[in-house]
Amino acid sequence: MRLILFGPPGAGKGTQAKLMIEAFGLPHISTGDILRSEVKNNTELGKKAKAYMESGKLVPDTLVTEMVKSRLSSSDVKNGFILDGFPRTEGQARSLDNILPGGIDRAIYLETSEDVVVQRLTGRRVCPKCGTNYHLKNMPPKKDMICDQCQVGLYQRPDDNEATVKNRLHVYLQESEGVLGYYRVQGKLENVSGDLDSKDVFSVIQKIISSLK
Ligand code: AP5
Ligand code: MG
Ligand code: ZN
């Protein structure tokens, strides 16, 4: 199964992907996570991507598409995958169809209101070791600011401050919403309300996946 998780920043793509990995065992490809690790390791790609990411802009299509193409050539994605955060422009969507003969199976759109995503992003805290997303109010860790599994301190993403969050939302509306039309005309778009509780969002996603089997 080739699935895309699409939606505005903070819609819950990473959170749902984690539940989907546990339930379906599909590999998770998050372009945001790959780029953050490139930045952390100070690679050539990381050096180019850093300023775009910190200001909330998109990293240029050519760089991200090459990165995804290389990831999709690995043998572990032969039986399917969950792509999170890619494609984010119509150009990326077209490139993906060129990379994958037959294209994707479904694009799951987590439709989420603006006030909800701002609240989620400004309260998000992340485990530096396992990448689990927590939220100060919605999904707090058991111990204050410590990952439940890894027992290490949580951090705040540098692009989760209020000014950069606003910019990311603006960029999403300008550059990414066109991806919806691209998959709608292919009959592959599934709308899911991202405003719901995480377990309710997940049960809708489970129904979609069951209908594909
Ligand atoms: P990326 O890392 O993909 O960021 P994003 O799209 O802005 O999405 P987020 O990761 O912020 O949100 P999410 O939807 O995963 O939400 P989460 O589950 O964490 O990209 C970062 C940057 O990299 C981009 O700005 C760009 O520069 C670059 N980039 C990446 N891909 C690119 C591409 N294809 N092209 C060009 N550039 C690219 O949830 C958020 C919070 O809410 C958490 O705290 C969580 O605990 C909480 N939460 C989640 N679900 C719920 C719920 N249902 N109810 C209550 N709380 C919830
Ligand atoms: Mg994410
Ligand atoms: Zn952890």
Description:
The structure is a single chain. The protein starts with a strand and ends with a helix. A hairpin with a 6-residue loop joins strand 5 (124-126) and strand 6. It has a domain at 2-26 and 79-113 and 169-210: P-loop containing nucleotide triphosphate hydrolases (Rossmann fold). The model has no long low-confidence stretch (mean pLDDT 96). The protein is an alpha/beta fold. The chain is globular. It is 48% helix and 14% strand. Helix 1 crosses helix 9, helix 2 (31-40) crosses helix 3 and helix 4 (61-72) runs parallel beside helix 5 (90-99). The strands form two sheets. It has a five-stranded parallel beta sheet with strand order 2-3-1-4-7. It has a two-stranded antiparallel sheet with strand order 5-6. It has helices at residues 13-24, 31-40, 44-55, 61-72, 90-99, 114-122, 162-176, 178-185, 198-212, and strands at residues 2-6, 28-30, 81-84, 106-111, 124-126, 133-135, 189-193. It binds BIS(adenosine)-5'-pentaphosphate, magnesium ion and zinc ion. BIS(adenosine)-5'-pentaphosphate is lined by residues 7, 9-15, 31-32, 35, 52-53, 56-59, 64, 85-86, 88, 92, 120-121, 124, 133-135, 138-139, 159, 168, 197-198, 201. Magnesium ion (MG) binds at residues 13-14, 30, 32.
Task: Please render the helix and strand layout as text.
Layout lengths: L1 E5 L6 H12 L3 E3 H10 L3 H12 L5 H12 L8 E4 L5 H10 L6 E6 L2 H9 L1 E3 L6 E3 L26 H15 L1 H8 L3 E5 L4 H15 L1
Parallel strand pairs: 1-3, 1-4, 2-3, 4-7
Antiparallel strand pairs: 5-6
Helix pairs in contact: 1-9, 2-3, 4-5, 6-7
